[in-house]
Specification:
392 residues, alpha/beta, Aspartate Aminotransferase, domain 1, Aspartate Aminotransferase, domain 2, 2 domains, seven-stranded mixed beta sheet, three-stranded antiparallel beta sheet, 13 helices, globular, binds pyridoxal-5'-phosphate
């Protein structure tokens, strides 16, 4: 008898739905190996490289032997640099409340592990970043889906929450702005949701990984409206450091000791080299470059949204930020997954089917990431146009 066959893996692993985009990626890889020019608009990662100053600071950290464990909260200079960065926008967070983590992913997991008991329900917008349910399940929580619509930018509203939330819903997760929509929570709604969580004694975790990549003015950080909730940040997107695995969690005072204790036990500390290097992110030249890139993303958004609309895609919400357009291709297909697979095969343009972000919305939704230069986006639109014309 083979003993291995009797070992049962955890239920939570068996219930993870597949990423449908992986089929698009698989076809793209085969085509690329044959020399086909693939335009990658499926990945949630900018085409920009990490800032040069940060790269040289990492080399320097290695040369200086900064390769040991750091303080479990993260190094003091980096926590101070993040606090100073917030202070420039009028938000005062003491460095003691900043916990460095392994990307926003580590921060989300940590915040949920600190706040969620087995069986507790976490309110979460549908559509959502597909890893969020996994973080909730990993700590024994259960997802309470909030069915959002495009007229509220696929973000929950206070009325929605008041209607939906029950006593088992101990936690609310928001993304501001969100993936896959790029939509922020409008200021008044955000303030009222923060107040609602405070007054009803619910934990609130706001993922602000894309907050610095906002194009619309006046979309404040949730920290403007309170200091009794968790806020997630990351070096991945704004600073183009996805592979460095560094992010942070702003921790409310009431959960500080517990969060630090758990972070130490779960992770010891994030990479010492990445932490040393990341201090250079706040150098004025790096911040200037990051802002230039943000402006570039806005140019891309504008051309892509109008190009997609011209081709018949319904872009219900013009994204406030990040680098995604969530579009309904209902005029072109009722099965975005089949559409994406046929499109990659015939044109080399890779998109992500919307089913990876929502199993509830009609299957005609898809996500397009503008993580390529304008000329490549123009080329992608041209290829899609030819593809659509050839079909008729
Ligand atoms: C909304 C959202 N949160 C968190 C993450 C994870 O980011 P990190 O690379 O910082 O772990 C992503 C990555 O795409 C994301 O889109």
């Amino acid at each position: 008898m083979n003993g291995n066959n009797q070992r049962k893996l955890a239920q939570r692993v068996q219930e993870i739905p597949p990423f449908h985009v992986m089929e698009v990626v698989r076809v793209a890889q085969i085509l690329a190996a044959r020399g086909v020019d693939i335009i990658h608009l499926e990945v949630g990662e900018p085409d920009f490289s990490s800032p040069e100053l940060v790269v040289s600071a990492a080399k320097d950290a290695l040369d200086r032997g900064q390769t040991r464990y750091t303080d479990a909260r993260g190094t003091a200079p980096l926590r101070q640099a993040i606090a100073d960065w917030y202070a420039k926008t009028g938000i005062y967070v003491p460095p003691e409340r900043i916990q460095l983590t392994q990307g926003a992913s580590g921060a989300l997991l940590l915040a949920l592990a600190v706040t969620t008991n087995p069986g507790d329900q976490v309110l979460l917008a549908d559509p959502s970043y597909p890893c969020n349910p996994r973080f909730i399940e990993a700590v024994g929580g259960r997802v309470h889906w909030l069915e959002t619509e495009f007229d509220t930018g696929f973000q929950p509203t206070l009325a929605h929450l008041a209607r939906e939330a029950g006593p088992s819903d101990t936690n609310l997760m928001l993304a501001h702005p969100a993936n896959p929509t790029g939509m922020a929570v409008p200021p008044d709604a955000l303030r009222s949701i923060v107040d609602w969580c405070n007054s009803s004694g619910r934990h609130l975790v706001v993922d602000e990984i894309y907050h610095s990549l906002m194009f619309k003015l006046g979309q404040n950080s949730s920290l403007t409206y309170g200091d009794q909730h968790f806020v997630v940040g990351s070096f991945s997107k704004y600073f183009n450091m996805t592979g460095w695995r560094l992010g942070w969690l702003v921790v409310p005072e009431y959960a500080l000791a517990a969060t630090q204790k758990l972070a130490q036990h779960l992770f010891i500390c994030p990479s010492s080299i990445a932490q040393s290097a990341a201090v250079a992110c706040f150098d004025s030249s790096v911040l200037e470059e990051a802002e230039t890139r943000r402006s570039e993303l806005k140019v891309r958004r504008d051309m892509l949204v109008s190009g997609l609309q011209r081709l018949g895609f319904k872009v219900a919400c013009v994204p406030d930020g990040a680098f995604y357009v969530f579009a309904d291709a209902v005029a072109l297909t009722d099965d975005a997954q089949a559409f994406c697979i046929d499109l990659i095969k015939k044109t080399g343009v890779a998109l992500t089917p919307g089913i990876d972000f929502s199993s509830r919305l009609p299957a005609s939704w898809l996500r397009i990431a503008y993580t390529q230069p304008v000329t490549r986006l123009e080329e992608a639109l041209l290829r899609i146009e030819r593809y659509l014309n050839d079909r008729v």
